[in-house]
Amino acid sequence: MTTETRGDARVLGPTDGKSFWQPVPANGFIRNLLSDQSVASVGKFSLGTQTVAPKSFIREHTHDRNEEIIFVVEGKGFARLDGVDHPIEKGSCVFIGHNRKHHFLNPNDEPLTFLWLFLPGGLDGFFEEIGRPRTPGEPAPAPFARPGDIAEIEQRTVFGWTDGSFNETK
Q1: Could you report the per-residue pLDDT of 21-42, keeping only the tens digit for each?
Q2: Which residues contact 54 (CB under 8 A, 6 or more apart)?
Q3: Which of 56, 36, 57 is CA-nearest to residue 47?
Q4: In a domain, 121, yes or no
C-alpha cells in the first residue's frame, strides 16, 4: 500500500495577505501573498505585489543569493538593469539574476504596481520589517523614513549591495 503525500493548496482573496506601507523613497505599499513559510512549499519562495507611489522609486540594489521576477500589473515606469533603463508597463515581465544591479523608477503621476516572485524567498520578511502595517482601503500615511538600522536589516535579509548614496532630502 502506497501513501500519497500532497502539497498545500491555497486561494487568497483580493484583500488577503499581510500588507505594509513602505518608507521613502518607494513610498506606496506591498502585499505579501504567499511564501514557502505560509504554504509549506517544497521549494523556497516568496510572492507578493508592490505599488510604487507616483514620483517615487526603489533604490538600486543587488541580491547576492536570490533571483527575482517582476510582472507589471498596472502603470508605467522604468526598470534600470545594470545602469540601462528599460521602459516597463502593464504586461511587461523582468527577470533579475543574482548580483545584478537593479532599480525601479516611477516618474509618473499614477502608481506603478507589479507582482514579484523571489527565489529562494525572504523578501516578504524584509518588507514586513521595514514597513508599517496597512489595512486595505485606508489612506496612505505621510512619507516616512526608513528604519535607522536599514543597512543592518538589508545585510541580514536578502540584499547583497544597496545604493548607500540615497539622501532622503533629494
Answers
A1: 999 999 999 999 999 999 989 9
A2: 106, 108, 109, 110, 111
A3: 36
A4: yes
User: Could you read off the pLDDT of 61-80 as tens digits, one per residue?
Assistant: 999 999 999 999 999 999 99
Give the domain CATH number at 96. 2.60.120.10
In a domain, 103, yes or no: yes
Spatial strand order in the sheet of 18-21: 93-96, 67-74, 112-119, 46-52, 29-35, 18-21, 132-133
Total domains in the chain come to 1
Residue 88: strand pairing partners: 77
Range of the domain at 71: 18-139
Q: What is the pTM of this model?
A: 0.93
Q: For 99-137, what is each residue's pLDDT tens digit? A: 999 999 999 999 999 999 999 999 999 999 999 999 999
In single-letter form, the type of residue at position 32 comes to N
The residue type of 26 is A
